[in-house]
Design brief:
By secondary structure, the chain is α/β, with parallel strands linked by helices. It has helices at 48-54, 79-87, 103-117, 130-143, 158-167, 175-183, 208-216, 234-244, 281-300, 313-330, 336-364, 366-377, 382-389, 391-405, 411-420, 435-445, 467-479, 512-519, 539-564; strands spanning 57-59, 66-69, 72-76, 93-96, 122-127, 149-152, 170-174, 192-198, 222-227, 251-253, 268-275, 428-431, 453-456, 484-487, 502-505, 528-535. The strands form 3 sheets. The chain has a 7-stranded parallel beta sheet with strand order 6-7-5-8-9-4-10, sandwiched between helices. The chain has a 6-stranded parallel beta sheet with strand order 11-16-15-12-14-13, with helices on both faces.
């Protein structure tokens, strides 16, 4: 039997694509040699029309332009923040800005206007996580010291949440909490004058934001969505806007290069550094041979139509979704066809594990590879058993153990240490994908005098950091008790991480949102630097190109949607 699992293409109007992007990474390590580009900053412009629409007044103390409002504490004037917030007086808005440009301030300015226009209504701010909700609640309380600001999460009892809703002027809440309360009739969304949706790129599929926005629609309030990127795909951008009730004219995008942003940011110098691969060719040969065999098996089952060397992660993920869909269609009973589909699922799992092992080996080194192989060995699945029963895996494991015992050099780690050592008197964040690599980087930094490093990882698992530990780490980093933060993706989205002198990508990222979130940690109030480490001839190169291409594609598609009036 042949399985044909390719999904039908959706009937979506085509979006004109950009031409292929060609970037040339360069070896550019000495950041201090390029600071002469410190050209004069553009003058600050006063957007009086936007100030008037928001009921704001500009003042000019010696330390810089400020804005004041009858209900709001004073705030530094930034033209783009005022201009975007002013648009919420007439329409729903999706604001797309890189990390570090103060998206929360836009929400505060928009809320201040609504408080004047609708004094008896409430401000609702939604966040995807409890730490983000608490962070926003603190910001709004500081901005509106005379208003009752409350933070609602699942840790607050239902009856108490109902009472807090009634008594508060500003409610900051996790999205699931608000969705639950809507479902149980504990709150009335018609009482809300403006709903702020933070990290609005989550407004897709079954995420609570979608249902909350649907409930809020038609009740007379405004919606302000905030995100670093809604995604590069035009249809996803349109889907988010439709869910939030945002028209084409309501999409407001800014970059650091825009004329109303440039006066308020510093230069962020990006340096892409090619490093030699670790000498793991024989190990890679063993793993790749096994991987290609699994891909060939999937091709024979009509699950893939590309040669093994052409198959990308996206192709494997798509094949996996097709297999799962087919298995679900067979129902609970058993048949020969379902047995073949289950066998295909096992082969697919084997290909995914080997693909990931190859990426870790070539981009993260032997220590992380060794730990990853130990994890999949403990799976006790058929896929894992086939992998470790193979003589080629036995050969690869022996070579890994030998190189680890000989303390083989890892060029990417050496380069990371070289970069961080330049900033003994400053602050650095090193971003990496895996917790094991976080540990390896911290261990390597222990011998570097003048460098004190701390990990920053998620809460999941036995080795995770609790929310209290995360908050303590950020406080100590801000206070200078250590000067290097080594973080996984938890350090990217939303959290109030202090500005740093440099950001190091231990590996590139292919997602444009993660890219701008990482880069936005530096270059705010003083010149900063971003270093991207790229292992030559590995998946690192493809990830780097894709990430910057996706960012360019996102801007292109938003521009197209706005100009063509597609919403």
């Amino acid at each position: 039997m042949e399985l044909n699992l390719f999904p039908k293409t959706l009937d979506i109007p085509p979006i004109r694509e950009l031409p292929p992007m060609r970037l040339q990474p360069t070896e550019q390590l000495d950041f201090f040699d390029i600071l002469e580009e410190n050209k004069p900053k553009p003058e600050v412009r006063i957007n009086q029309k936007a100030l008037d629409r928001l009921g704001l007044t500009a003042t000019f103390p010696p330390e810089g332009v400020k804005v004041t409002h009858p209900l709001m504490a004073g705030m530094d004037y930034r033209e783009y923040q005022v201009a975007i917030a002013a648009e919420t007086t007439d329409m729903n808005v999706l604001a797309v800005l890189p990390t570090g440009l103060g998206k929360t301030n836009i929400a505060v300015l928009a809320a201040a206007r609504q408080m004047i226009d609708h004094p008896k209504k409430k401000i609702l701010v939604l966040a995807p996580t409890k730490p983000l909700a608490e962070q926003h609640a603190e910001t709004f309380q500081q901005s509106f010291p005379d208003k009752a600001v409350a933070c609602l999460t699942g840790h607050t009892g239902p009856e108490k949440r109902g009472r807090i809703w009634t008594e508060s002027d500003v409610i900051v809440a996790t999205s699931q909490t608000i969705l639950n309360d809507i479902a149980h009739g504990r709150l009335d969304m018609s009482q809300v004058s403006i709903m702020v949706v933070d990290e609005a790129h989550h407004t897709t599929k079954n995420y609570p934001y979608v249902e909350i926005a649907k409930n809020f629609s038609g009740k007379g309030g405004r919606i302000l969505g905030l995100t670093a990127s809604p995604g590069a795909d035009a249809d996803k951008i349109k889907s988010i806007c439709l869910a939030l009730g945002v028209k084409s004219s309501g999409i407001e995008i800014r970059t650091r290069e825009d004329p109303d942003v440039e006066p308020y940011v510093q230069y962020n110098y990006r340096s892409v550094i090619k490093v030699p691969r670790q000498g793991v060719e024989e190990i890679e040969k063993c793993l790749r041979s096994m991987y290609y065999e699994a891909i060939a098996d999937l091709r024979q089952r009509n699950l893939l139509d590309k040669r093994p060397e052409e198959v990308k992660t996206e192709d494997l993920l798509e094949a996996g979704r097709g297999i799962n869909k087919l298995i679900a269609e067979f129902g609970d009973g058993y048949s020969d066809e379902k047995g073949e589909a289950l066998e295909a699922k096992s082969v697919h799992a084997e290909a995914m594990k080997l693909s990931h092992a190859l990426r870790v080996l070539t981009t993260h080194g032997l220590y992380t590879t060794s730990e990853y192989l130990k994890v999949i060995r403990r799976d006790r699945t058929q896929a894992s058993e086939r992998i470790f029963d193979d003589a080629r895996m036995t050969e690869a494991l022996g070579a890994i153990d030998k190189m680890l015992s000989e303390k083989a050099e890892f060029p990417k780690m050496d380069k990371a240490m070289e970069i961080v050592s330049k900033y003994k008197d400053g602050k650095v964040i090193v971003f990496t994908e895996y917790r094991k690599t976080v540990e390896d980087i911290i261990d390597a930094l222990k011998d570097n005098k003048g460098i004190l490093a701390q990990r920053f990882i998620g809460q999941a698992g036995r080795d995770g950091m609790s929310q209290t530990e995360q908050q303590q780490a950020l406080r100590e980093f801000k206070d200078g008790k250590f000067n290097v933060l080594v973080a996984t993706s938890v350090g990217e989205e939303g959290l109030d991480i202090p500005e740093v002198d440099a950001v190091v990508f231990f590996e590139p990222v292919s997602d444009e949102r993660r890219l701008v979130q990482r880069e936005g940690r530096t270059g705010r109030h003083k010149p900063g630097a971003t270093y991207v480490l790229m292992a030559e001839g590995t998946m690192d190169e493809g990830l780097y190109y894709k990430g910057y291409w996706q960012w360019k594609k996102m801007k292109h598609n938003i521009d197209l949607i706005k100009k063509a009036g597609l919403l």
